[in-house]
Specification:
With 304 residues, this protein is α+β, with helices and mostly antiparallel strands. 19% of the residues lie in helices and 29% in strands. The strands form 2 sheets. It has a 9-stranded mixed beta sheet with strand order 2-3-13-10-15-8-7-4-6. Strands 1-12-11-14-9-5 form a 6-stranded mixed beta sheet, with no helix packed on it. Helix 1 links the parallel strand 2 and strand 3. The longest helix is centred in the C-terminal third of the chain and has 17 residues. The chain is globular, with a radius of gyration of 20 Å.
């Protein structure tokens, strides 16, 4: 076995460039279904009041006694989605932010699941965080006609989000600390060994990136990963269906926004209509077909 850090799939670094000011320019160069590609937009402005609340003192002042949903992972790797999870490996419970910090930094001797567990304020709705992010605007690069699906905050250190893909467009904005992100193109899905169709986590790879099993997953070496380190003011665009593996390198706070253009929304609606009578076990595969094939018919209809 070998770790991904030494694995030959690291193909290159994700493009970095100063933040764009126009959603039209962004859509033309990056955020379109036909030729969408990831990019890190640097220098995204963070309101000074928000940055002040993100300091250690500001966090404790804003959130100290606030009860928040915290995910605990026995092995430090966090699943995504709504579960179910193995209760011996994952659990979500409510605790105050102060208790969360104590557990995060090893100041509690009573583990919830296992010694060495990690805690993560994971996919938390910003409205649960009081004033912390109240003046952080939604990105102006999201087209005005787009549908914003969800916006979530992530606060943690020393965690790994298991590699998976989403079926919406995604902006991940780093507000404090550092994250390491690996992205894989949908063109490499066949090499990424997803969980069985119809399961809760069927958009997740079965490959453990911390100790890749070469015998069990021999084709994984054919996949190509693109890497970046996110720092405060960096916003990563993760196109729909791009697999992403995320590590919190230092204690950090980030916010992601999932959104759909009208074209992508039409694809999802076509998928829902098509799958109305289809067995749940094949729905994910049909969804991938909708996203990868039907987009051509929707965006370039054939005239009779």
């Amino acid at each position: 076995m070998t770790t991904l850090k030494d694995w030959p799939v690291i193909a290159g670094q994700i493009e970095r460039r100063p933040a764009l000011s126009s959603h039209v320019e962004f859509a033309q160069q990056y955020g379109n279904l036909r030729a969408g590609r990831p990019v890190v937009l640097t220098g995204v402005p963070i309101p000074p009041t928000c940055a002040e609340r993100l300091t250690d003192e500001g966090l404790r002042r804003s959130l100290g006694d606030v009860m928040l949903p915290v995910m605990v992972a026995a092995e430090g790797q966090f699943a995504t989605g709504k579960g179910p999870w193995d209760p011996s490996k994952f659990r979500i419970l409510e605790m105050t932010f102060s208790e969360y910090l104590d557990r995060l930094h090893g100041r509690r001797s009573d583990p919830i699941l296992a010694k060495g567990e990690r805690c993560y304020i994971y996919q938390c709705p910003p409205d649960r965080l009081g004033p912390l992010l109240e003046d952080l605007p939604t990105s102006p690069l999201i087209p005005p006609e787009a549908c914003v699906i969800n916006r979530y905050a992530w606060i943690g250190e020393g965690t790994i989000t298991v590699a998976h893909y989403d079926t919406e467009e995604n902006f991940l904005l780093q507000l404090r600390g550092k994250k390491r992100v690996l992205l894989f193109s949908p063109a490499d899905h066949d090499y990424l060994y997803f969980n069985r169709n119809g399961t809760v986590h069927d958009r997740h790879t079965r490959v453990d990136f911390t100790k890749v099993d070469e015998q069990q997953f021999p084709d994984f070496r054919k996949a190509r990963a693109y890497e970046t380190i996110l720092e405060p003011g960096d916003m990563l665009y993760i196109p729909v269906c791009w697999l992403h593996h995320i590590e919190t390198v230092t204690f950090g706070v980030s916010v992601n926004t999932w959104w759909m253009t009208p074209d992508l929304l039409r694809i999802h609606q076509a998928f829902d209509t098509l799958c109305g009578e289809i067995d749940a076990g094949v729905r994910p595969e049909v969804q991938r077909m909708c996203l990868q094939v039907m987009q051509d018919r929707i965006l370039n209809p054939i005239n009779p």
